[in-house]
Amino acid sequence: MSTWLVALVLLPIALVLVAGLVSLLARPLVTPAMGAMERARLQRCLARAARGDAHLQDHQVEPALREFEAAFCLMIVRADARLADQIVRHHTGLLSRLLSVADDLPQQRVRLLALAKVDRLLDRRTEMQRAYLQLRTRPLRDSRRLQLERELRRNTRDARAAVRELIADLQLISARKVAYQ
Fold it and tell me: What is the domain partition of the chain in residue ranges?
């Protein structure tokens, strides 16, 4: 009887210790896997941008704009700070491509307020992403970390909407160019 009583007392303690060890060992194993998934997602976005460039080389503005829209990589980087910097450079390249598309369109009608809006949202996103990466050593339920995640998700929605607006403006202007010719 006393053996069963000791076993019942020690079993929860052993389970807590095993769960603690698994959580300690899992974090170092999960971070590289998450980093690999994030890098793969960025590579897909880079491939979409390359396809957009190929469409531009063939003077196909509509498909290029669709590819550029899909090429924006608006994910929350959790594992690798260098990846966040690569995404910033990727977005800068996309904005410059979109600006060059707008530059090829009729000058009298181009007013791209959406471009400025996208640029502003991406700048804000960069600041929040850097702050989020500084907090990655804190617990998952840290209030500042959770608040930054909510703000980054809101920024993602706003940036996607602004990119859609920018692409729609460029498509409208390019359709006018075709109509003028």
Answer: 2-180
Task: For residue range 58-73, list pLDDT tens digits in order.
Answer: 989 899 999 999 999 9
- Is the pTM above the cut of 0.85? no
Model confidence over 163-178: pLDDT tens digits?
Answer: 999 999 888 877 765 4
Q: Measuring CA to CA, which residue among 93, 102, 45, 47 is closest to residue 73?
A: 45
Angstrom distances, CA of residue 114 to CA of 51, 61, 110, 149, 165:
23, 18, 11, 24, 6
Contacts 24+ apart (CB under 8 A), 90-95: 90/42, 90/45, 90/46, 90/49, 91/122, 93/49, 94/49, 94/68, 95/119, 95/122
Half-sphere exposure of 69 (CA within 13 A, CB side): 18
